[in-house]
Amino acid sequence: xxxxxxxxSLMIVAQALAHQNLHQxxxxxxxxxxxxxxxxxxxxxPVTDVNSNDIVCNVNGSNGANVxxxxxxxGDTIEVQWDTSGHPGPIVHSLHGPVASAKSASGVGxxxxxxxxxxxxxxxxxxxxxxxAGKYSFKLPANLASGEYLLRSEMLALHASQTVEGAQFYxxxxxxxxxxxxxxxxPKYKLxxxxxxxxxxxxxxxxxxxxxxxxxxxxxxxxxTCAGGSGPQPTTLATTTAVRTxxxxxxxxxxxxxxATTTAVRTxxxxxxxxxxxTTGSSGSGAPLYGQCGGQGWTGPxxxxxxxxxxxxxxxxQCL
Length: 320
Known about the structure:
Radius of gyration: 29 Å
Shape: globular
Region (Disordered): 259-283
Order of helices and strands: HEEEHEEEEEEHEEEEEEEEEEEEE
InterPro entries: AA9 (IPR049892), AA9_LPMO (IPR005103), CBD (IPR000254), CBD_sf (IPR035971)
EC number: 1.14.99.56
Domain CBM1: 285-320
Strand content: 35-45%
Signal peptide: 1-18
Number of helices: 3
Number of strands: 22
């Protein structure tokens, strides 16, 4: 909770660590290169008009003809890296698609939210990222239809939200070609159209005086639930154990006859069969730091390799 006594120091920090851009992203730890696959805006200035098409993929962000399309799979881990900023606020990621071509899609229209981080354990999302060189990790939904998508990363700076159109949106759109098992995600929301300048999570008149940040949720609907498709199965380590089974066959008597004598020969045959019983045991070390570890519809790891699994909302928990 902010007070008037810490306002001056916060404003000094905000001035020192100001505007920002998304510069790089990784798919399962692999980057295609600096600014590759991202529709880069002409400057690091914010968008403040939520009714403008600039709110979709930033200024001049309606076309990605000269931007690479990066391959990914449903369920992959995405890590983004922004310029660090002292502006308090959330980070949100949304998908638009599948579309006929990520290069030509404007992004105007339907989106669905796949992640958001607001104020958790006394820190805004930007503070979490400042402690990690501007990086933040999350997972694509496991149930996505194959096709090309726009992946939108939004950081909202709330330090000037006490005035209408004072909130600052920093936006970066990435171009992906996703291979997935199929699925449908809802709810969806439209950009532009879903945000209003007077929404109580965009215009916050008491942001530094009495506002309770723990109650804050980022603009747009809740994180979408993606259903349908098979989705990736948990990784298991198979342990095979050989079990030997011995079966005694029936005893038979063969009568061998010759001209002189008749001899009974008793023959016992033992048949031995071997069967293999497979047992499996799960393996894995949990979700990475800042990775998803829970939420409605989540099928991935629910423990953390580092940090504690912390609930952000009913649809998203994260290792912090």
